[in-house]
Specification:
By secondary structure, the chain is an all-alpha fold. The protein has helices spanning 3-19, 27-49, 67-78, 82-99, 103-112, 116-123, 129-154, 160-172, 183-208, 216-223. The protein has one domain (25-223). The longest helix has 26 residues, at 129-154.
């Protein structure tokens, strides 16, 4: 090959790599590094939330009372049931803390189902593309798993049944959304929101400092994206 032609070929190759840094990685490396990152990040998120105080003591994810209850707090307090509102908020957060560990196997299955093309698309898709992938793959089955666990906890609250009855009446008048029509539905959605928020935080940390997660595969793949 003539020098001029060879030089032109190198320039084209360098340009292609700059446009697609993952082109230098084998399919095995691309998918392996990302799967390691997803497993690490999702496990960390579950570990932070699925313990006593995981929701209640974390202002980022703490589940507050539905707005309709907060607005009614003065009236409820006048009837001597203000403490019951506080108890209900604690119960909601405890319910989320008990439900979140159920997410781990479904998150792992989502990672296992990932294709090489999924991996490359996620790696170059922005700071929350991993989290978006998890939402797409797991939100519906996680909601189904969380709901009975949450209901089992929130049903012990003295206000839970009364809230659900009141929201049922409000729903007939078009004043209640599906999300907050029941305490257990409201808490389940907030628990999912908190889980995905924590996964997003872990994802950002991995992208910012991949080597700190102790995996050469994670470091190699995400290091190319810097």
């Amino acid at each position: 090959m003539k020098p001029a032609v060879f030089g032109a070929a190198l320039l084209i190759a360098a340009s292609a790599f700059a446009a697609d840094p993952l082109a230098a990685l084998s399919n095995k490396e691309a998918s392996g590094g990302l799967k390691a990152a997803l497993e690490t990040g999702s496990a960390a998120a579950v570990a932070k939330l699925g313990v006593e105080g995981g929701f209640l003591n974390n202002d980022q994810v703490r589940i507050r009372l539905p707005k309709i209850l907060e607005q009614a707090r003065p009236l409820i307090a006048m009837t001597g049931r203000g403490q019951q509102l506080d108890e209900l908020e604690v119960a909601m957060n405890r319910a989320a803390e008990q439900a979140v560990p159920m997410a781990k196997p479904l998150l792992v299955n989502a990672v296992k189902s990932m294709t090489v093309e999924d991996a490359k698309r996620i790696l170059t898709g922005g700071d929350t593309s991993v989290t978006d992938f998890f939402k797409e793959k797991t939100s519906a089955p996680l909601s189904a798993k969380f709901l009975p666990i949450v209901k089992g906890v929130t049903d012990r609250s003295r206000l839970s049944g009364q809230f659900n009855a009141a929201m049922g009446q409000a729903g007939k008048l078009g004043l209640a959304t599906g999300e907050s029509a029941t305490v257990e539905g409201y808490v389940t959605q907030r628990a999912l929101d908190g889980l995905y928020l924590m996964i997003a935080e872990e994802e950002k940390n991995i992208r910012r400092d991949p080597l700190s997660y102790g995996s050469k595969a994670i470091g190699k793949v995400f290091g190319l994206l810097k």
